[in-house]
Amino acid sequence: MQGYQIAKRVFDVVVTLAVAPVALVVMGAVAVAVKFTSPGPALIMSKRVGRGRACFWMLKVRTMRVDTPQVATHLLADPAQYLTPIGGFLRKTSLDELPQLWNILKGDMSFVGPRPALFNQDDLVALREKYGINDMTPGLTGWAQVTGRDELAIPEKVTREVYYKERQSFWFDLRIIWMTVVKVAKKEGVRH
Fold first, then answer.
1. What gap in Å lies between CA 171 and CA 179, rounded to an integer?
2. Does 140 map to a domain?
3. 59 contacts 99 by C-beta, under 8 angstroms
């Protein structure tokens, strides 16, 4: 497994550096669009639970109004009321996730792994702890995202994360990345 972890880290760094020039241009355009369509910062830092339950600050493009409560989107009574004018588009295209390339470069995240939980998602963090998911580096995408994304209840999400944990390999990661590209292109699995 150590060889896999080394290969995964090398892949993360090399691919991040390779796509960085294009990603920076796209992020710049997205940031300008966010600033012109809603008050507040273009980028936000979201406190997330990382490997070993250590918290880190995850970068995202802001898709919600600045007065949105700091909870998981599915816990909001009407998430759509908090979206910025272009927030829905950014989420469906996953453009709001581009700044996380910085987190990948830093080593807080990987391209593939369980999506990092919010610091206050106690139910998700506790269930992940029970199955050892918190011992993994969180990812930009993961098996749960490509097989359900926003539609999964927490127990099902963790079941799929366990499936990934038990089958981790470089080739499985590449398959998940490919499936992610297809899902994003089709804008599938995003409720809000």
1. 12
2. yes
3. yes
